[in-house]
């Protein structure tokens, strides 16, 4: 019995860690935690009702995927990509996504088109509702699902990770109205995919990334201290340890 209880505790802890990890990732991707935002262990521990040790583990995971920076004495902050890094993230995405498009076209079926159109329609609705957070998330999802059609799980995972870092780039350097990609761009990409035109699709994808880069304003924002309880919709629970 004690062994089973210990296993249950470990599983619960892992599930809780994942829940916190994905909640923070979602907040970063949706620009609710902008670059430079401080992530103090004590505040996060209180909000999520866990120990500071548990929060520290989550922050280390976020640091490993370069979404946050961990600095001695200054603690954790949402990462602020430098100008060169921002350009390189977008250039790498462009390179990978364009190179994979022939495989995407080759494997594409009607069900894939339907799924992408659903994402695109929801993205359009989010734009119309001025729901920037949802629009940003759906924009990234469109790109990841497009690449997933190829069946190349390694590349799709790489693109998925890069979309997270791209979100930081847009948050740091995008214009205030910039909420993910423009829907008509995705419509044009979808039309070319339906037509099986891999060459034209790659050209349009490259132009898509060129346009994103051209709309960036390379100015940094300052550090902020978000209201975590409001952001994550969780009442503070006791004291951290």
UniProtKB/TrEMBL annotation:
SUPFAM superfamilies: GntR ligand-binding domain-like, Winged helix' DNA-binding domain
SMART domains found in the cross-reference section: FCD, HTH_GNTR
Domain of life of the native organism: Bacteria
Molecular function in Gene Ontology: DNA binding; DNA-binding transcription factor activity
Short name of one Pfam family: FCD
Native source species: Sodalis ligni
Keywords: DNA-binding, Transcription, Transcription regulation
CDD domains, alphabetized: WHTH_GntR
Protein name: DNA-binding GntR family transcriptional regulator
Annotated InterPro entries: GntR_C, TF_FadR/GntR_C, Tscrpt_reg_HTH_GntR, WH-like_DNA-bd_sf, WH_DNA-bd_sf
HTH gntR-type domain span: 14-81
């Amino acid at each position: 019995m004690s062994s089973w209880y210990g296993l249950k505790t470990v599983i619960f802890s892992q599930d809780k860690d994942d829940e916190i990890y994905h909640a923070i990732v979602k907040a970063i991707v949706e620009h609710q935690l902008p670059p430079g935002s401080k992530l103090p262990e004590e505040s996060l521990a209180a909000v999520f009702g866990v120990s500071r040790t548990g929060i520290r583990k989550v922050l280390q995971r976020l640091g490993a995927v370069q979404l946050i920076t961990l600095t001695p004495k200054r603690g954790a902050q949402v990462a602020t990509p430098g100008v060169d890094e921002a350009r390189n993230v977008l250039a790498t995405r462009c390179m990978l996504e364009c190179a994979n498009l022939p495989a995407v076209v080759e494997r594409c079926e009607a069900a894939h088109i339907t799924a992408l159109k659903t994402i695109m329609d929801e993205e359009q609705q989010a734009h119309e509702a001025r729901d920037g957070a949802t629009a940003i998330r759906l924009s990234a999802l469109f790109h990841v699902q497009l690449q997933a059609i190829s069946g190349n799980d390694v590349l799709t995972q790489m693109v998925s990770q890069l979309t997270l870092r791209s979100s930081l780039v847009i948050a740091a350097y995008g214009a205030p109205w910039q909420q993910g990609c423009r829907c008509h761009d995705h419509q044009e990409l979808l039309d070319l995919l339906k037509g099986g035109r891999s060459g034209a699709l790659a050209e349009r994808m490259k132009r898509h990334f060129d346009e994103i880069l051209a709309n960036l304003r390379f100015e940094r924002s300052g550090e902020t201290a978000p209201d975590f309880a409001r952001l994550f919709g969780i009442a503070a629970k006791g004291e951290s340890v």
